[in-house]
């Protein structure tokens, strides 16, 4: 396959073969890649084949990180990280073959369903958190935690209704330059989940993922990310300077104790955030046990006689959330 073929319409690639994979159909596309369902002809299995935009193969910084981080990601064997089978280059096109995850991604889920019930949001969050923390323990920073990189497959049983996978480690173009703007001044990807230190080009570590992850969890509960601005520059400014609006403004059914948890996870200074993603989810789960409208967690989930009737998801088994 040539770069020319890639820069044409991806639908022209259906039926074509690249590096031992036969392309079957397009699954989706982001700012810098197209993902196809493909057949691994050597092992006769279905895979997701991600073809990166040719301009990325020409960027030396990106190529180095692509090869380093694909290797690192492939080395992590974790139930909530999409297994990478192969990451290489064919005819000037970087590609990644990985497990095909049948289901949806969190972006589509939120677009379709809006804010999720608390138990569902916590179940999904706990799985993503365990994946991120495992990556951080391997010295890997994701850098692009967002709903589109969280794949949601059907789970095993009613106690585990969904199985969540995190994908796309280190593949963001954002951290390549100060603000992630391309040479033609277009931003690749979304600015909704980008940490202040990423914006200002300071060194990042796992805590930049704590920030991005907290933005995602906020959105799963509120139906929108913490900061919404008309202009990209205003959004970048908000991440760096503005206080996130309290989640309970959008979700008055939740105890106000959750607001403090988001204030900490979304702190501008990495040091002020929860040290790990699971620490954030645990704090959120504890805060969510508090009475709606109170700032302190109750020891038992009892309802004051004068308390408003709990919304339906308050009654659901929040506290049986499986611990990965
Ligand atoms: N391993 C996979 N299995 C199934 N679908 C996938 C897989 N990886 C990515 N996808 C789908 O392809 C879409 C496009 O992916 P990508 O190019 O990374 O863009 P983005 O992450 O910005 O949505 C994703 O939103 C997801 O729905
Ligand atoms: Mg992606």
Automatic annotation (TrEMBL):
CDD domains registered for this protein in UniProt? STKc_PknB_like
Question: Sorted alphabetically, which keywords does the UniProt record give?
Answer: ATP-binding, Kinase, Nucleotide-binding, Serine/threonine-protein kinase, Transferase
Q: Name one GO molecular function term.
A: protein serine/threonine kinase activity
Q: Which InterPro entries match?
A: Kinase-like_dom_sf, Prot_kinase_dom, Protein_kinase_ATP_BS, Ser/Thr_kinase_AS
Domain of life assignment: Bacteria
The UniProt annotation puts the region (Disordered) at: 289-324
Q: What class of enzyme is it?
A: transferase
Sequence ranges assigned to domain Protein kinase in this UniProt record: 21-299
This entry's Enzyme Commission designation comes to 2.7.11.1
The residues the entry assigns to the signal sequence are: none
Q: Which residues bind ATP?
A: 50
Question: Which Pfam families does the record match to this protein?
Answer: Pkinase
Entries under PANTHER family matching the protein:
MITOGEN-ACTIVATED PROTEIN KINASE KINASE KINASE 20-RELATED, SERINE_THREONINE-PROTEIN KINASE NEKL-3
Q: What is this protein called?
A: non-specific serine/threonine protein kinase
Species in which this protein is naturally found: Streptomyces vulcanius
């Amino acid at each position: 396959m040539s770069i020319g073929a890639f820069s044409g319409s991806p639908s022209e690639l259906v039926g074509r073969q690249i590096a031992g994979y036969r392309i079957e159909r397009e699954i989706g596309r982001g700012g810098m890649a197209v993902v196809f369902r493909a057949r691994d002809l050597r092992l006769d299995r279905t895979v997701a084949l991600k073809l990166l935009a040719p301009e990325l193969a020409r960027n030396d910084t990106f190529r180095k990180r692509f090869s380093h981080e694909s290797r690192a990601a492939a080395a992590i064997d974790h139930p909530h990280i999409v297994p990478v089978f192969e990451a290489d280059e064919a005819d000037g096109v970087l590609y990644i073959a990985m497990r095909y995850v049948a289901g949806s991604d969190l972006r589509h889920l939120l677009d379709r369903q809006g804010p999720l019930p608390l138990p569902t949001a916590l179940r999904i969050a706990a799985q993503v958190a365990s994946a991120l923390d495992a990556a951080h323990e391997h010295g890997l920073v994701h850098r692009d935690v967002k709903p589109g990189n969280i794949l949601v497959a059907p789970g095993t049983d009613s106690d585990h209704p969904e199985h969540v996978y995190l994908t796309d480690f280190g593949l963001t173009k954002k951290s390549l330059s100060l603000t992630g703007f391309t040479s033609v001044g277009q931003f690749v990807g979304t600015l909704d989940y980008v940490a202040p230190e990423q914006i200002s080009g300071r060194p990042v570590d796992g805590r930049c993922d704590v920030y991005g992850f907290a933005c995602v969890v906020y959105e799963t509960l509120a139906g929108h990310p913490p900061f919404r601005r008309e202009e990209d520059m205003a959004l970048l400014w908000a991440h760096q300077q503005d206080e996130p609006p309290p989640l309970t403004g959008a979700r008055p059914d939740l105890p106000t104790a959750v607001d403090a948890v988001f204030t900490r996870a979304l702190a501008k200074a990495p040091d002020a955030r929860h040290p790990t993603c699971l620490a954030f989810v645990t704090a959120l789960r504890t805060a969510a046990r508090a009475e709606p409208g109170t700032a302190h967690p109750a020891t038992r989930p009892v309802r004051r006689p004068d308390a408003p009737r709990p919304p339906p998801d308050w009654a659901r088994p929040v506290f049986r959330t499986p611990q990965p």
